[in-house]
Amino acid sequence: MSGITRDEVAHLAKLARLDLTDDELDRYSAQIDQILDAVAKVAEVADKDVAATSHPVVMENVFRDDVVTPGLSAQEALAMAPAREGDRFRVPRILDEE
Amino acid sequence: MSADVLRMSAASLAAALAGKQITAEEVTRVFLERIRDVDPQIHAFLRIDEEGALATAREVDRRRDGGENLPRLAGVPVAVKDVMTTVGMPTTVGSAILDGWEPPYDATIVAKLRDNLMPILGKTNMDEFAMGSSTEHSAYGPTRNPWDTDRIPGGSGGGSAAALAALEVPLALGTDTGGSIRQPAAVTGTVGVKPTYGSVSRYGLVALASSLDQAGPCARTVMDAAMLHEVIAGHDPRDSTSLPDPVPDFVGAARRADVGGVRIGIISELTGDGYQAGVMQRFTEAVETYRGLGADIVEVSCPNFSYALAAYYLILPSEASSNLAKFDAMRYGLRVGDDGIATVEQVMARTRDAGFGAEVKRRIMLGTYALSSGYYDEYYGQAQKVRTLVQQDFDAAFEQCDVLISPTCPTTAFRLGEKLEDPLAMYLNDIATIPVNLAGNAALSLPVGLAPEDGLPVGLQIIAPHRQDQRLYNAGAALEAALEDQWDRPFIEGLQ
To answer: Does residue B400 lie within any of the structural domains?
Structure first.
């Protein structure tokens, strides 16, 4: 087993901004441990001298002409906002109490 | 007439429309009525756009009456997987976090359907954010397999495949990140194509894993898939990973349908142990059919495919955890717990817990783990090396063969609920489709009959090298025609 602990999964959830319930933590800890155990198989190729592939097709840098094209209007961009104030997104407070 | 329309291929419908034997409005109404009749049982659609579809159909009829030369598939209805943005129709990606979200722009491939005057009947159901092989992970309830409504229609594109199998639509779009077009096609007895990576625009697709995602056509015949593929393929300046190549003649390749002298390789790692007996039986018969058609059958080995599933389940969650970071409850989508006291981070975390389903949360955490410092080299770095090895296996195999084949899936459709609490068992269903996404080449699944033990469809996968998608249509159409001769009828006539 990969031996990932419940505390480590709780930390991952915090990093990933997931406010998990205790029930979820119990369930996911066991499942993630099992999955990590299965995928750890990739370590078997460790000593092989192979390059990493991040993209399936080799591509050069892709540029476009630097011309101004129409974008979304403020009204279109805000149309689906969960909360707004005037022409801006309204967000919860950014700073903590302290 | 309406029963005939339902069973007609898209190619025949297009011909009947062009010959004015039927109007686009009549065709569209027949399918809308079918959806009303059967979709309450199947649940292939998340929403129907009756008005929009009929407006397009009437435009086709008006312009055709005016003597205009229209695109080949003008007036042939189509359905769109809910991962593609559509103006005027909500796009949820099967997730509660995007419930009711109306995107401000069309995906490029949706715009192409509109340019080709194809009535869009609606949006099809899918596993949430395309994570799953059963469509059970949709926040809006599962889709059922028309062959047996206690069984899954595959996933993530189970909605598009089930809609085709239930005769609700003649054509549909899907996306394939690890098999989400091909596996649903296999288990519903339909045809699905995953094009070469980059050959169809990803602009306006809600990204799952950007280096693996590819949109493609879903249909009931190989020719129909070729026709739809030609509509959606091609370079898009809005997708910088899209290939600049001209679109090959897929329809011509499907028409040629000749495998005389074509070298077909059976991938030995993707047969045998772990594959259902009836799946292997139909696959072996199809190989014999190919031999009878004059193809050279060879066996090839791709030893590194045994690492492909493991590499995929590191690369995919890693990319997905990054892509899904944008669902932060600030600019669009669900927002939960914004009580004026909670901080922005608390609101994000509450929203994401409430808005994402179990499989999405599992994969986000897996990806976060695989990308975290200290584990990066061990997991993500190693997985990327496997990706190179899988590509090298394909390169070596294609030195001996023109196309490769395997069963599309190890089993026929499993039962709803059977693998829901066992993610690893669910993942194994994609063992034969995943290597193609890692390497970025093209593949097609077509039905090769029913497994004797359960009477459910079996799919055969054909794989072509990068940018050689036309080989899929040639080899696929040849097998399809030969099997129809053997069965004395097209496969789709088995559909109810």
So the answer is: no
